[in-house]
Amino acid sequence: MTLSKLFRGKALALLLCFSGLSWFFIEMAIVVQAGDTLQLDKQLILALRSSSDVTDPLGPTWLEEMMRDGTALGSNWILLSLSLFSAAYLYLRDKKHMAVFLTITILSGLAMAFLLKHAIDRPRPDLVSHATKVYTASFPSAHAMMSTLVYMSLALLLASVQTRSAIRGLIYVAAVIVALWVGVSRVYLGVHWPTDVLAGWCAGAFWALASYKVVPYLFTDNKNA
């Protein structure tokens, strides 16, 4: 296979990925606003609760604590702190282009998440008592979206300086696991509909990958780095 064919193949795969993520999010927003997913959302939330007491999540106490910890990993303050400290570190290491990329990507993603919440304005689930405090609209899940965006962006930065494919793969897998953990925890704790989380994952992945491809030179060392 020639280099040009490989490049065209990767470009086509990326285009399909972007198209799929954007289509899925838009379709999800449409059906959510129409109320078409409400019954399924309710069934999935209740499936994670005790049949005799819907205030009691399924599983042992340690599982509930693990889900609370997962939610904490996706909180705005944790993600902002992690992003800004990472950006400061990159700046001090004379990786100013990466620091600027990370800061702009995360802050713009956060703004987009709250704009989408305000525009769609979906109420939070009221089937069960919330196991953590909430104060914004439901769709999309900002925890799911921002955790995907932050951890994937950091993974892309870390992987860009690795030469071994196994290490790059491990970094990506770790980022995906944390994002999944955060998203699942929101449904488990009763503060989000499952479709909120799916849309959040989708939007976060799209934003991270789009930023990565729009400014590809930020991920490679150059003579000024």
Automatic annotation (TrEMBL):
Domain of life, source organism: Bacteria
Reactions catalysed according to its record: di-trans,octa-cis-undecaprenyl diphosphate + H2O = di-trans,octa-cis-undecaprenyl phosphate + phosphate + H(+)
Bilayer-spanning residue ranges: 72-92, 99-120, 140-158, 170-191, 197-219
GO terms, molecular function: undecaprenyl-diphosphatase activity
Keyword Membrane assigned: yes
Ranges for domain Phosphatidic acid phosphatase type 2/haloperoxidase: 99-212
Signal peptide annotation: none
Amino-acid biosynthesis recorded as keyword: no
Uppermost EC category: hydrolase
Matches recorded under Pfam families: PAP2 (PF01569)
Listed name of the protein: undecaprenyl-diphosphate phosphatase
